[in-house]
Amino acid sequence: xxxxxxxxxxxxxxxxxxxxxxxxxxxxxxxNVPIVTDQEVARGRGQHWIRIERYWVGEYPHLEAxxxxxxxQHCDNAPCEPVCPVYASVHxxxxxxxxxxYNRCIGTRYCANNCPYKVRFFNWYDPxxxxxxxxxxxxxxxxxxxxxxxKCTFCVxxxxxxxxxxxAQGQPLHDGDVxxxxxxxxxxxxxxxxxxxxxxxxxxxxxxPNLRKFRLFEHLGTSPSVxxxxxxxxxxxx
Amino acid sequence: MANRSVLAxxxxxxxxxxxxxxxxxxGVPDESITVMSGIPYAPAILGRRPMYERLAPIxxxxxxxGFLAALFLTVVTPHLxxxxxxxxxxxxxxxxxxxxxxxxxxxxxxxxFGGLLAEIAFPAVGRHEYDFRxxxxxxxxxxxxxxxxxxxxxxxxxxxxxxxxKVADTSxxxxxxxxxxxxxxxxxxxxxxxxxxxxxxxxxxIPLPNQMVNQAxxxxxxxxxxxxxxxxxxxxxSVLVAGVPASQPVAVTAxxxxxxxxxxxxxCVQCHGPDGTGIGRMSGYxxxxxxxxxxxxxxxxxxxxxxxxxxxxxGLMPSMAENLLPVDRWDVVNHVRxxxx
Amino acid sequence: xSTHETEYPVWRRPVLEDESLEEQAxxxxxxxxxxxxxxxxxxxxxxxxxxxxTSRTFWVLFVALFGLVMMGVVTWGFQIYWGLGITGLNRxxxxxxxxxxxxxxxxxxxxxxxxxxxxxxxxxxxxRPISRAAETVTLFALGAAALSIFMHLGRLWKAYWMLPxxxxxxxxxxxxxxxMWDFMAILxxxxxxxxxxxxxxxxxxxxxxxxxxxxxxxxxxxxxxxxRGTEKEWAHLETTLNIFSYVIIxxxxxxxxxxxxxxxMALQPGWNSTIFGPYFIIGALYSGVAAVIIVMAIIRKGMRxxxxxxxxxxxxxAMFLLLLTFAWAYFYFNDYIAPWYHGEPAMKVIFxxxxxxxxxxxxxxxxxxxxLLPAATLWQRRVRRSIPALVVIAIFVxxxxxxxxxxxxxxxxxxxxxxxxxxxxxxxxxVILTIAALAFVFLGYLVFSRFFPLIPAWEILEGQILxxxxxxxxxxxxxxxxxx
Lengths: 238, 341, 484
What we know:
Chain B has about 350 residues and is an alpha+beta fold. Chain B has helices spanning about 15-25, 45, 55-80, 95-120, 150-160, 175-200, 255-265, 270, 295-300, 305-310, 325-340; strands spanning about 5-10, 35, 140-145, 165-170, 240, 245. The termini of chain B are far apart.
């Protein structure tokens, strides 16, 4: 049976984001993202499919922190896709997702260079999951070996699960059936996920008349699927 | 009538040209005269007719072949297996032009090279008349003539200044030359192609490291997997798994008791009293009053429960977590137990 | 001089009655290889003898280079086993020394093709003794470039997926990707170069076959394919060489342009510059010509080829180098001024880094080696006639060009539009592999020089027969004949 066209979209309300990074941890847990050592992070290899970019604004003592949760934007004109020589980074037109095919990747790393949001991560080493952490690994998600690129997939395994369940039951997919791990965990509800083509979905309602909405680096023409809602400055007195 | 081959060497071009004229006068046809030299001499220098070469059309065929191969790869294959990337059309303009250019050039080069080998019948299999001095700057004139003409030819050649004159039987080519050549070249090209195809269709498989086939995660149909504990995800408060605190109790040693006693004096005595009976300086201010730690109710509590009270607080009692590290709290627990005896 | 020069072999020079003419003739003979013919068997000896001689220096070099290459092999093995983490790359600097090496080696390769093909088409006569030596640099440089790109891959053992062939996975490679264009272009270029060298080698292989014995004789007999030098063979070879020359020149231009498009197609600030195509081509020729000068100096000394490689050849190459200095400076200025002028934020940071930051020593050294030193020295005839000076300048050009590529790849990548994601690259295992790749080029060249004649004797003999001396008035002047 033909699945209907969807446009998976995420809306991030920067007014509600407190920079707690619960989404980062949840993503690690759900997607088998390895935890690299502190030495590796110092070398610039921190591996977080969603990360909180923290920018300091102003001078002490009037310092403000701005938080920007940054994950794969699933661009419609993704610059990472045409440059992969082996079609490991491809687009799903039916769903508006940018797919990374791990077992096709030969590790040329052009896609990571071309991503203006720098949300693509390369596995520089084989991931290490000391016992008993391997028990925690999600069997729905491939554990990547060294030499392959990875990035946020909008929890495509959860999307598939929900779609298959809906298909099995003969029901259409409702808004809220698909919840990526970061969205599930966000305590303030700053992350909202849904199908933009579904007019009744929360994302559609949030975005429809919103003056606060913007997308990152629109001038590059990447047409991302992640919308940000401008927020008031998050004040942290340092 | 058998044929004999006469090979004469000359120092330079003028005498060679004279020789060729003399051979023509003797009736030797142009096709039977072969001139061999260490450097290329234009036909005009030796008084010969320029020869017709088919390399240009062969190169063109190669170019067309390369062009078509490129079009196949860039236009046909994306339509056979359509994979959309980056908002670009399936057959993008500029990249197609690039690939077409490269393949056309490659086709031209390969066809020209192959054409060269074919046209001059390379690799030359079998014995041919030759003299090593040709690569020392001499020009060799080889005439294949009927036996009867040999003497005349020999004298004519000597007159024009030949040195190193040689007469030999023309050896008939052994076996089908073209077939041998084709077999040689064919093997050169076919063997790697066949080996490559065997690998391509997985008839030969090298056991390369393919780590992602074997996953560290445990799938649903695989076991064993630890059963997820009842309260696996902490809902509130300190980490508590199945009613058991995350930190380990400390053994009841003299050190622990002494530390516990000191900490108890600092943190607990003002409410619970020096012997834990609940009569301290501050006890009168609280309703209900601080618990009697030696009572039966408190004695019935497990160590973990006392620890949790210290960590989370209870009623009016605040959490001691800010004041006491978990190991300190265990020391206090040990001390309270000793008070209860 | 009479016009019937070819009534005697060119290596038997006539004695001129007029003494001043004889003096001039002697002077010209000393200066110009093509006016100084010798007995061909002596010339063949001079070309073949170095192949037999393996002096102590040779063995020392061989062992040292082999050791370096083995060190690279072992390091590469570790890298495959442990992962690319040992190279020091990170996010956002995903491309490091391996890409720098690839671009550098492909760049060096261009000079060989230019000298053998473009100079042949332009009928520049001083290319004759250096064409094969230069083309050999191309061969091994392309080999090192291919090795570098394989070292760069995360899953090297799957690299064959870039080949377009029907398979059971129903997948073809992605021709949208500049890396595929690169792959196809380098494949074409490598094939063309190998075949081109082989074609030029055929008559010399025949010469070697005729003058050697034992296993060498058998080896050359097989490779020479039975070349006899008949008119048919020569005519076809000349046509093939012409076709190859005309085809391989656009291929050469396309290869480095496509390599530059690996960068120009990206959204990275500093990379998406439209001038990268011609900029890289000029840079490639520049570093290539400098590399060929170094190689020429080494083989002239090491293989005692003073007869073949004379001042005029070094002078020609040095003039070419000077021309390329200015061309490179022009393109670099173009590439610099546009982003500087419109003040793109990421580029502002980078330029500041170049002028005052940690990259300043690299940037200034590059400008010194690429512009200042050659422009200040190469216009002087005295410098162009001094081979040690030329080698020093060429080495500085190599350093400058390597630094240029280094600044483009890991340094630019560290700065982008998201300051939270900036980074600095500290090269680690890649250094060993770079040294090993360089050693590979030298080692390959060294071994090649023992098995194949590096000087195209037939081309030189052809040039000597075609060139002559002509008297106009009181002067004796060299003439060049075009016989095709």
